[in-house]
Write a structure and sequence with these properties.
Blueprint: E1 2-7, E2 18-21, E3 35-40, E4 43-53, H1 59-64, E5 70-71, H2 80-92, H3 97-104, E6 113-119, H4 125-128, H5 132-140, E7 142-144, H6 145-151, H7 159-164, E8 168-174, E9 182-188, H8 192-201, H9 207-218, E10 224-225, H10 226-233, H11 237-246, E11 249-255, H12 276-291, E12 295-301, H13 307-320, E13 324-328, H14 336-346, E14 350-353, H15 359-370, E15 376-379, E16 391-397, H16 414-424, E17 428-433, H17 438-445, E18 450-454, E19 465-470, H18 471-476, H19 485-497, E20 500-504, E21 514-516, E22 533-535, E23 540-542, E24 549-551, E25 564-566, H20 571-581, E26 587-590, H21 600-609, E27 615-618, E28 631-636, H22 650-662, E29 673-678, H23 684-690, H24 694-708, E30 715-723, H25 726-743, E31 749-761, E32 764-773, H26 779-794, E33 800-805
Parallel strand pairs: 12-17, 12-18, 13-15, 13-16, 14-15, 16-17, 19-29, 20-27, 20-28, 26-27, 28-29
Antiparallel strand pairs: 1-2, 1-4, 3-4, 3-5, 6-7, 6-8, 9-10, 9-11, 21-25, 22-23, 23-24, 30-32, 30-33, 31-32
Helix pairs in contact: 2-3, 8-9, 12-13, 22-23, 23-24, 25-26
Bound molecules: adenosine-5'-diphosphate and zinc ion (ZN) (2 copies).
Adenosine-5'-diphosphate (ADP) binds next to helix 13.
Length: 811
């Protein structure tokens, strides 16, 4: 038997399967999709079996093959569909196959091979006395080499000598980073009859042992954890050990799941009577689900139109068909509130994959899927890889969110992977948003997705009234505060009426850079060439790319002026200002500083929900998906900071943000107001957001995109090169650029090579090439060829090259 294995070395040289012989004793364990350990050169690596053949080659060829050393799981973690999908991804996104595979698995399974140091039998107490390291090894037998280097830096250099003299040896081992969580359970091995007899045979002084037998007499057929025995029945471990020795009970290790929701009760919830718009949207979706045929829908519904109820109903019909459902939400909207809605409806059938879970918790949720213990997965981007084998429905909520695009290899978009998966499984793809991505809406208007509309809020609640305030006029009227007079008035009004508000700070701009107001000098990172961000807590300026940090200077390095300070507004500053203007106001601030601790996000939100705050103040974090009945005012401090980014999606992102924030107000019985403060009130993204007019925004923005040659009219590929020396990186970029220029179609535009907008990161210079194409039937193949040419040249150099297909970040 021969296994074809791809190994965990993500470079193109190894980006193909290698043959290994499967020793007889392993053949019952190995399957296509198994994780294995294989020798590779001098190392041992983790690999994935992508094919198995019976050995039919010539004997001598077979002899040259090395053996698979280990099969790591009883059940292969990769289904045939996932394997096929990973191969497609590696072609589509030009990434090494193994990186696509790894993106599909929970982190704990990406076990890294580690070198271990092992003590031999020659090592005795006497030899050990010379050295702390040897003593440690004598006690523990084995230590990872990396740990040895850290713990015993002084002795590390002696290790080769000890290996030479036979005291120590090294080997590579691949181990899972986290083992399963286990608990000890106690079970009776006796029949009730035997229990009574045994009880009678015990002396009265063996009180603890007698109690154990009594417990089992009262609860036949039941087992108890050792912990329960202790806490509820007051039985200590030695009594259990004694009974185990007699052979009357068994103490066993049982694997348990770490369930972060274990101690929460979920109320069962009845579904509502659907509105006519919901029914109209549901009808074709349910028909497609019943037919088990491929179909894709874009549900364009305003915030509060009841989209989530439509998703839940679609999922229920999928389960009734005996099929499984994947529900994707942006990381940031995967709130406990959202999880509750699912658990309330589908109970224990739901697994939740959330990055706030610990690695162990994630792994446990994932195992519920592969063991077919659940039928619904709710999760962020990577939940699209849930190892179901009968997917009938994939829902993508807030499909326009940029977090569906992965910004590291493999640079996939979850929407595109979902499309592939839906077609492969004859499943239904249902995308929903109040502000669909332009690309998606364009395809929907051309009929590639069926467009479903829900233009009204549930219960005919009015859309909130939107007020736009021109901040330039505020300044003319001598108002230098960050709050316009209108917003000030409305905050005071809500405080009086004891209603709640959200105040939102658009921080996607360069809002906290350090600038000299005399000469305009801005502080930049010396390694990365981007503005440093001001951090108030310790008065430093810090680079968000590499962590470079310097104290906030008191004088401008250029002109010596004292007027150098951070520019723009942070959440802390808004909080301070609110406290000054409205004494006694209760502000709950949510930003990276207050939410970095696990669980703090949820704590703050539930405090707000319980009315322990008047204002929820925050950044992007509070714009999405939250649903608070008593919020009647949403204020946006500076709407246009995101308009001025060097990004062709700047207007689209601004429109989305304003719409989302507006959607937070007046969702229930109380009506709501939205105040947008801006320096460019005439901009079309702000104007259309004010009127909740997505189609009008779409028309205007499409004109812009056509004029400037951006998606959806053109598709993009961004190729980025980096190296410590400018001439080297420029040459590398030209090697690839020249090749492409010869091969691309006439209608394709090739921009560059030019320096990237962020020209240097961590002391590496960055250059880029951008392809803009309309008619390039085989882009992937073309890029693969160009990559080969580049890599041939790059053999002696160390230029890093990345390809981003349909990029989101253009910096
Ligand atoms: P969206 O996802 O479009 O923002 P939701 O599905 O969250 O909207 O619905 C908004 C609110 O309306 C929620 O509180 C939800 O429980 C409620 N809701 C949705 N559909 C109905 C309905 N048919 N009848 C009554 N209430 C509904
Ligand atoms: Zn200056
Ligand atoms: Zn830096």
């Amino acid at each position: 038997m021969i296994a074809q294995v791809i190994v965990d070395v993500p470079v193109s040289r190894t980006n193909r399967p290698f043959d290994y012989r499967v020793p007889g004793w392993l053949s019952p364990l190995i399957h296509v999709g198994s994780r294995v350990v294989v020798p590779f050169g001098p190392r041992k690596l983790q690999g994935y079996v992508i094919g198995i053949t019976e050995d039919d080659g010539p004997e001598e060829a077979l002899h040259r093959l090395k053996d698979v050393e280990q099969v790591m799981d009883d059940t292969p973690p990769l289904t045939p569909e996932l394997l096929k999908m990973s191969e497609w991804m590696s072609r589509q996104y030009l990434c090494p196959w193994v990186t696509a595979v790894q993106a599909m698995l929970p982190a704990v399974l990406k076990g890294k091979a580690q070198k271990w140091l092992t003590a031999s039998d020659l090592l005795d107490e006497e030899t050990c006395s010379r050295s702390g390291l040897l003593w440690e090894l004598y006690r523990k037998r084995q230590l990872p080499l990396a740990e040895v280097e850290k713990q015993f830096p002084d002795e590390f250099m002696l290790v080769p000598g000890w290996i030479h003299s036979g005291l120590l040896s090294t080997e590579y081992q691949v181990r899972d980073r986290i083992t399963k969580k286990q608990q000890s359970f106690v079970r009776s091995l006796l029949t009730p009859q035997q229990l009574s007899e045994s009880l009678a045979s015990l002396s009265a002084r063996a009180e603890q042992m007698r109690r154990v037998l009594e417990v089992f007499l009262q609860h036949p057929e039941q087992s108890f954890s050792v912990q329960t025995m202790r806490d509820e029945f007051g039985i200590n471990r030695s009594a259990l050990k004694g009974l185990e020795a007699k052979g009357w009970i068994a103490i066993e290790q049982v694997e348990i799941y770490r369930d972060p929701y274990a101690n929460r009760r979920f109320q069962e919830k009845q579904k509502p009577d659907f509105t006519p718009l919901q029914l109209q949207a549901l009808e074709p979706i349910i028909t497609s689900i019943k037919e088990s045929s491929y179909a894709s829908y874009l549900l364009h519904g305003v915030t509060g139109s009841g989209k989530t109820e439509v998703y839940l109903e679609a999922i229920e019909h999928t389960l009734m068909k005996g099929r499984e459902a994947i529900f994707l939400v942006p990381e940031i909207s995967l709130t406990p509130q959202m999880v509750e809605r699912f658990k309330a409806r589908f109970g224990a059938d739901v697994a939740v994959l959330h990055s706030a879970l610990s690695q162990g918790e994630r792994y446990d949720e994932w195992r519920k899927i592969i063991r077919k213990e659940v039928k619904v997965v709710v999760g962020a981007r990577s939940a699209i890889f849930a190892p179901f084998e009968n997917v009938g429905l994939i829902v993508i909520d807030e499909e326009h969110e940029s977090s569906y695009k992965q910004e590291e290899t493999p640079r996939y978009h979850a929407r595109e992977v979902a499309l592939w998966r839906a077609k492969e499984n004859n499943a239904v793809l249902l995308m929903g948003s109040a502000t669909p991505a332009l690309e998606t809406y364009a395809l929907a208007t051309r009929g590639r997705y069926k467009l479903l509309k829900m233009p009204d809020r549930v219960g005919n609640r009015p859309m909130p009234q939107v007020h736009v305030v021109d901040m330039r006029e505020e300044l003319h009227s001598e108002n230098r505060s960050m709050f316009s007079r209108l917003l000030h008035e409305m905050i005071a009004d809500r405080l009086k009426k004891q209603e709640q508000m959200v105040i939102f700070l658009n921080r996607r701009g360069f809002s906290t850079f350090v600038m000299c107001r005399s000469c305009g000098y801005t502080m930049r990172c010396v390694h990365c060439d981007i503005s440093l961000t001001y951090h108030k807590s310790n008065h430093t300026a810090r680079c968000h790319y590499c962590g470079y940090t310097i104290p906030q200077p008191s004088h401008c390095p250029e002109c010596q002026s004292e007027h150098i300070r951070f520019f723009g507004t942070g959440t802390q500053k808004v909080e301070a200002e609110l406290a000054k203007l409205f004494p006694g106001i209760r502000v709950i601030r949510m930003d990276v500083d207050t939410t970095s601790r696990k669980g703090s996000h949820e704590e703050l939100l539930s405090k707000f929900r319980q009315g322990q705050g008047d204002v929820l103040l925050g950044t992007q974090m509070i714009a999405k998906g939250l649903d608070f009945p008593r919020v009647t005012l949403a204020g946006i401090i500076a709407a246009d900071t995101s308009l001025h980014l060097p990004d062709f999606r700047a207007a689209e992102k601004t429109f989305q943000l304003l719409t989302q924030v507006g959607g937070r107000a007046g969702r229930h019985e109380l009506e709501g107001d939205v105040v947008i403060q801006t320096y460019t009130p005439e901009h079309y993204s702000i104007q259309h957001a004010t009127r909740h007019d997505y189609p009008a925004f779409y028309e205007d923005e499409m004109l812009q995109r056509r004029r400037t040659g951006y998606p959806p009219y053109f598709r993009l590929v961004l190729i980025t090169f980096s190296h410590e020396e400018v001439p080297v990186v420029v040459r590398g970029a030209h090697v690839m650029g020249d090749f492409l220029r010869q091969k691309v179609a006439q209608t394709t535009i090739l921009l560059g090579p030019v320096a990237s907008p962020i020209a240097r990161v961590k002391d590496r210079f960055r250059f880029q090439i951008m392809l803009k194409y309309r008619d390039e039937p085989n882009v992937a193949e073309l890029l693969a060829q160009a990559t080969a040419v580049f890599e041939e040249w790059n053999k002696q150099q160390k230029v890093l090259m990345t390809i981003d297909v349909d990029p989101y970040v253009l910096l």
